[in-house]
Amino acid sequence: MFKTLDDIEINGSRVLVRGDLNVPMRDGKVSDATRIERLAPTLRELSDNGARVIVMSHFGRPKGKVVEAMSLRAVVAPLSEAVGGRQVSFADDCVGEVAKQAAAALKPGDLLLLENLRFHAGEEANDGEFAAELASLGEIYVNDAFSAVHRAHASTEAITRFLPAVAGRSLQAECAALSSALETPARPVMAIVGGAKVSTKLEVLGNLTPRVDQLVIAGAMANTFLQARGCQVGASLVEPALVDEAGSILERAGQVGCTINLPLDATVATAIESDIETREVGIDQVPDDCMILDIGPRTISQLTALLATCSTLLWNGPLGVFEAPPFDRGTVAIAGHAAALTEAGELMSLAGGGDTVAALRHAGVLDRLSYVSTAGGAFLEWLEGKSLPGLVALEPK
Ligand code: ADP
Ligand code: MG
Fold first, then answer.
1. What's the gap in Å between 32 CA and the centre of ligand 1?
2. Which of 37, 46, 301, 347 is the most exposed place for a label (fewest CB within 10 A)?
3. Mutate-to-test residue for ligand 1 from 193, 355, 360, 374, highest number of ligand atoms within 8 A of CB
4. pLDDT by residue (tens digit) across 330-374?
5. Residue 233 CB neighbour total at 10 angstroms
6. CA 68, CA 155: separation in Å to the nearest integer?
7. Whether pTM exceeds 0.85
8. Is 321 in the pocket of ligand 1 (CB under 6 A)?
9. Residue 101 sits in which domain range?
């Protein structure tokens, strides 16, 4: 297990904080500040305790070159706002003289943001010399970017060879939420795995089946499983090459005491269009010219009842084409029930994934579940049971 901010003495130290300020932008402005807000508590705490705070992050994919459009300068103002209006200075480079002077000028409590780490090829190459240069700016290293821990990069891995390393508050909270959902969960545990493709979730399914009591497979990926069970799925999206694999996942789940729940019925249509005629059919009655685009009302009732008997929910992947109502109905309904059970103190609910976060926002439950991970790739790799290099690097050596 890693150390946290509770385990370090600050006393005016220079503290290098790896954040994730890779925020979505529109017309040069930050369009979603969630990641900035998640980093703010660690920065405020360090600043309040007299640290000289040096923040570093990647932004976009400049591939080792300076790309003006990917400058982190655009994040200075929103970052300053997120830390309660404290001033944030900016260094035009994350290493070299510019960075050294900016770091040296800091007084206790001051905050400095360094330019995009990925302007240097050494970052993604996990280069030791580049990491040593970064490390020379500070005395303590704090990683507060869970969304970057699946990558062994200079600022997440190599740097820990040079400085005492601890986890920031946001990383700490995310790890605590994840471990209470999968390592030491209150049982029974329900996992929902939805989304578009079985091929992208094979490892997730393989890791979850021995660990959860109820596994709900929905979204387009359920179609391949339905076919493995001998159902005709009409014109639905299927991955024919994975039908056999789906069959063996179903079989193995049975052997480890995991109940797999496939849809009982579906909302179908001939195209993904909002004003198209839709039908609700039993799962073995999908017309040849129709696609399964959402779970149907019987499945919603079944899952609602099942969820009420569970103590933990782990959710990745929308249950239907939520981007095109009315095919958002299943996702919105289950999200609402999960939120209500969570608020009643009956359920610990954890969800994550790029489209899943968008779907939960659409359903209006983003703040009503126990924890929503915005970590994307890192969250999925954690669900796959992989060891995450940025977390391993924080463990005492
Ligand atoms: P995440 O990004 O949360 O891991 P995925 O990328 O696996 O989720 O899947 C999200 C996509 O799956 C959404 O764009 C959604 O429209 C699609 N999807 C869900 N159900 C269906 C379905 N029945 N048919 C086609 N696409 C679907
Ligand atoms: Mg996705």
1. 22
2. 301
3. 355
4. 999 999 999 999 999 999 999 999 999 999 999 999 999 999 998
5. 23
6. 21
7. yes
8. yes
9. 5-172
